[in-house]
Recover the amino acids of this structure.
């Protein structure tokens, strides 16, 4: 079994502090969910084109990996689908470079169910994202939150997507 932690837990730490702590406490990996004030990890300093080779080299030398990049992309809003797709594609491109296997996405925005969501639309949106996941060899993890904290409902959506490149990510911090 491998154990990692999320940068969400240390928003004020520098990248050096994060990977040093991961190594010191014998973690295997780091989930990237923003760094400092940059929540869009693709633009965070260690992951820019100029710094990425150094970042990859440092992680390799420490025996650390980045298994998951956590996007803020939310599929709930039909009028914002293209922005969500663009964000997911940017994360997929970075994931491929980092050899990260997973990208966290959202189908509902809030931790608790607030309003109803069209499951048919979410299925359609996820099916449109499958080619991106396949191209960059990542699995999109739909977080269990909002109406999809009902795991039976999320499982039904995922069953309809019919792709091993789309799966569930259980958020144990928001069990509604």
């Amino acid at each position: 079994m491998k154990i990692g932690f999320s940068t969400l837990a240390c928003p004020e730490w520098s990248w050096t502090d994060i990977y040093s702590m991961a190594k010191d406490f014998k973690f295997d990996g780091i989930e990237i969910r923003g760094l400092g004030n940059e929540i869009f990890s693709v633009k965070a300093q260690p992951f820019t084109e100029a710094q990425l080779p150094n970042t990859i080299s440092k992680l390799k030398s420490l025996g650390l990996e980045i298994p998951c990049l956590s996007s803020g992309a939310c599929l709930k809003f039909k009028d914002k689908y293209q922005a969500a797709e663009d964000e997911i594609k940017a994360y997929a491109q970075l994931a491929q470079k980092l050899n990260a296997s997973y990208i966290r996405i959202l189908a509902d925005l809030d931790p608790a169910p607030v309003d109803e969501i069209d499951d048919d639309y979410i299925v359609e949106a996820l099916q449109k994202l499958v080619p991106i996941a396949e191209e960059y060899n990542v699995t999109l993890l739909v977080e269990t939150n909002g109406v999809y904290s009902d795991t039976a409902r999320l499982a039904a959506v995922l069953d309809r997507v019919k792709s091993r490149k789309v799966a569930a990510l259980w958020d144990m911090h928001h069990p509604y």
